[in-house]
Amino acid sequence: MILAAAMVAFKLIQLHGPSGQLIDVNPDQVVTLREPRADEGHFPRGIRCIVNMTDGKLNVVQEDCLTIRSMIEEVRK
């Protein structure tokens, strides 16, 4: 219940990390989205997008960047 209220108040989006864990992301703190490059083999299998945040941290997620971009645009409406 508290998480649901926080998601509405902060307009968070939920993404899935490498192990399927939920990652709540504030779309206003997303700086860039990009796909992992072929020479970046150090990311876990199944990672489809790298989300760079304003604090300099990276979130590697299973969703593709186009889907995440759509989710961010939907929250900002």
Task: Tell me what the structure shows.
With 77 residues, the chain is of the alpha+beta class. It is built from 2 helices and 5 strands; from the N terminus they run H-E-E-E-E-E-H. The chain has a single domain (2-75), classed as PH-domain like. The chain has helices spanning 2-10, 65-75; strands spanning 13-16, 22-25, 30-34, 49-53, 58-61. The protein is globular and about 35 Å long.
Give keywords:
PH-domain like; two-stranded antiparallel ribbon; 26% helix; 2 helices; three-stranded antiparallel sheet
Low-confidence stretches: none
Provide the gyration radius in Å.
13 Å
Shape: globular
Query: Structural class, please?
Result: alpha+beta
- β-strand percent reads 25-35%
